[in-house]
Amino acid sequence: MQNELRELISRHCLTLTVELEDISLCLARLDAPNARPGPVVAEAIGLSHKIKGSSGSLGFSSISAAASLLEHYLKGINPEAAALSREEQEGIQDHLSCLNRLIHSASPQDSALYNVQI
Q1: How many CB atoms lie within 10 A of CB 31?
Q2: Whether the Cβ atoms of residue 79 and residue 41 lie closer than 8 Å to each other
Q3: Which GO terms describe its biological process (predicted)?
Q4: In this predicted model, what pLDDT tens digit does every residue of 54-96 receive, in sequence order?
């Protein structure tokens, strides 16, 4: 059972990089001319929430916390706004950079569940 859990944790580390890329590509759409923040931000909230939950469940509490902060920040953006303010753009980038650093430095052994005896 422990080997199966470790394999799941290892796959999660690989999946995280794909999910981070998904969020990055999603948020990059905000730079397009006439981009409406509402739908893009809503999608990014969902992607952040997914990383938060899966990482928390698999013992990556720091990644889960960073994804939660990004999700919370995104929820504070007015979905009806015509465009993001410079402050909002910088806030998104700050949170995304933090999540990026954590995901790219994560290894399966960083999971709190990696050495759990089952």
Answers
A1: 9
A2: yes
A3: phosphorelay signal transduction system
A4: 999 999 999 999 999 999 999 999 989 988 999 999 999 999 9
At the second CATH level, the architecture of 2-108 is Up-down Bundle (1.20)
88/5 Cα distance (integer angstroms)? 38
DSSP calls for the chain: -HHHHHHHHHHHHHHHHHHHHHHHHHHHGGGSTT--HHHHHHHHHHHHHHHHHHHHHTT-HHHHHHHHHHHHHHHTS-TT-SS--HHHHHHHHHHHHHHHHHHHH--GGGSTTTT---
Residue among 70, 102, 106 nearest 88 (CA): 70
Query: Which residue has 């999540």 as its token pair?
Result: 99
pLDDT at 33 over 90: no
- Single pTM value for the model: 0.94
Residues whose CB falls within 8 Å of the CB of residue 61, separated by 6 or more in sequence, listed in order:
55, 112
